[in-house]
Amino acid sequence: MTQRSLEFNAARDDARTEPRWIRWIIIALAIAFLVVFVVLPLVLVFSQAFSRGVGAYFKALADPEALSAIRLTLIVAAVSVGTNLVFGLMAAWAIAKFDFRGKTALISLIDLPFSVSPVISGLVFVLLFGAQGYFGPWVQGHDIPVLFAVPGIALATTFVTFPFVARALIPLMQEQGTQEEEAAISLGASGLQTFFRVTLPNIKWGVLYGVLLCNARAMGEFGAVSVVSGHIRGETNTMPLLVEILYNEYQFIAAFAIASLLAMLALITLVAKSILERHLDEEQPRGD
Predict the structure, then answer these.
(1) 87, 162 in Cβ contact below 8 A?
(2) Per-residue model confidence as pLDDT tens digits over 34-81
């Protein structure tokens, strides 16, 4: 261990002025909170899903409505993640690498879905594409289904998830600066060559991190999708919507079986998030 590490550990120990028993109480309360509000609900979800055996569990997942909900959730997640990946890369590149008027306004607009209720965002799309909405007569006149169809669900999901990729990349790209891009351009590389050969390799872990969070939110989105879906069984119900419907109909095994898939997604996301955060820490430049 280096002298600098020893000095750091000594300073950290000096900062701990609380008695040992207080620290243990705080740690115990934090662990108890996590157990009650995170671990216990997950255990209950899986125990209820398998309460009648593995056969009943897979039978519930093989139901046509369940398969339709899973398929629709994957389609909507793929559309929203792909759209937000393109938008997030462009927005982060523009904000981190260039100075222009309206940069602060653009950042505020990117953060807008964080401050707007998903239900409100769903209502906005109803006002835009509904029968009496701004674009409603036009889309109906051209026989383009938006509300109560896959396009409306994809639009609502894309709106509530589009900050994730951009917000994961903006601070990372700002920390890295523009020196490497400027060097590549001075050596004759074009803008696209600079992006694909210099910028993108440097932010690959940030991209994966943003895509991971975006995908998790897209698959679990309920409020906005509930407003625009119409709850058409076998057609416009995503997995979260189907869980609510099955639970209200007292089909508890099927409801918890679908919920267990979402819970598994959450656990996988948590593990992958920890791995990607480690890579992101290694990627960010450090001072002397």
Answers:
(1) yes
(2) 888 888 888 888 888 888 888 888 888 888 998 999 999 999 999 999
